[in-house]
Amino acid sequence: MFHRPIHVLFLAERNSSRSILAEALLNRLGAGRFEAYSAGVTPAVAISPYAIALLHRINYNIQTLVPKGIEAFGAPDAPELDFVFRLSHHLPQGRLPQFKGNPRLIDWFLPDPEDVMGSPAMIATAYADLFGALCSRIETLSQMSPTFLAGEAAPDRLERMGEAYIRLAA
């Protein structure tokens, strides 16, 4: 059982879209019960402008959001983590630091909207699809009981979550 907020780290390659959006959503939807963080293996210089636009639409204060490197979460002053969600296929296991807290590693591989080439409308659609997938999963995660999340079945349920989410109109 957890006697403090549940600490969650979202990892992606650059920490500029997927992981940033996931951090913001869980901090909003799980406020008081969860503390979310995000990082990247090779962090970007700035957050994607499309991600910023989505965060503005939900009135999220982006002042605290900056791309961060994964090394920060292996430092002595890093928070103790309960879960680490890998959002990218391209995160080498050997490059992950030793996290404090012995967190459970969960794979939520989601397409990177930054890989989409085309018109601004096509790119915006990729971001809307990502945002829909993250909202669905994170809303469910934020409503799970601490007892369930501490249990044996949690990692499997979390990995299977959202396998066939319904795309909502943006």
TrEMBL record:
It comes from the Bacteria. SMART domains: LMWPc. The keyword Transcription regulation does not apply. SUPFAM superfamilies: Phosphotyrosine protein phosphatases I. GO terms for biological process: response to arsenic-containing substance. Residues 6-144 form the Phosphotyrosine protein phosphatase I domain. The keyword tRNA processing does not apply. Keywords: Arsenical resistance. It holds the Pfam family LMWPc. PANTHER family: ARSENATE REDUCTASE (PTHR43428). This is Protein-tyrosine phosphatase, low molecular weight.
